[in-house]
Amino acid sequence: MARVQYRFIPNTQYDAQSRDFVMKAELQFFALPEDAEALLAFAEDKVDAIEDRQRFIIGDCEISFTAGIVQDDILLVGAVAIDTGPVDNSCRDQERAKAAYRSIRKWIKKNYSNRLYSYNLEGERKETAARNHWISPAAAAWKKTNSERLLKLYDTSPIAFDIMIVSKQMGEIKPVANNKVRGHG
């Protein structure tokens, strides 16, 4: 199961009285503003309403959506996020909202790639796999047409992202972990 990047908050909180999990999660991606059209079209059938092209309304719950922003040769990250509210006062339609969020997240992961790495623009260029960030095919093509273009979380960030080059000789990346302990069946 792929991991979702969580910002500022734990992924879930448990409400023992109602036996509900409160969901707080965010998935970040690099996508051109025109990529938003495909995501909005997909989300339209999953939510009750879309307001200002940034808020997906499901009953009394909300999923926020931010499209990527291009500033000169920098593409800033977009995101889809959900917060069903505090444990003692969560939204009533949280189960539908969580299902909609999971469906949108699954669509992004199916249609975008997470073959990215991050590096520091200041000082030593140490490259680190960034498997919790995703990039649309159009954004990847945009980046590949000009090596000077940057993918960043925000405009003044010293951290940038780039697309991993996967060699045919490397083969597919396969998970190494399984449920078996080495030497024990």
Structure write-up:
By secondary structure, this protein is an alpha+beta fold. Helices cover 19% and strands 31% of the residues. It has helices at 36-44, 94-111, 137-144, and strands spanning 12-15, 20-30, 49-51, 55-58, 61-66, 69-71, 74-76, 78-83, 116-120, 128-129, 133-135, 150-152, 159-163. The strands form two sheets. Strands 1, 2, 3, 4, 5, 8 and 11 form a seven-stranded mixed sheet that branches. A six-stranded mixed sheet has the order 6-7-12-13-9-10. A hairpin with a 3-residue loop joins strand 3 (49-51) and strand 4 (55-58). The two termini are 23 Å apart.
Write the layout of secondary structure elements.
Elements: E1 12-15, E2 20-30, H1 36-44, E3 49-51, E4 55-58, E5 61-66, E6 69-71, E7 74-76, E8 78-83, H2 94-111, E9 116-120, E10 128-129, E11 133-135, H3 137-144, E12 150-152, E13 159-163
Parallel strand pairs: 2-11, 7-12
Antiparallel strand pairs: 1-2, 2-8, 3-4, 4-5, 5-8, 6-7, 9-10, 9-13, 12-13
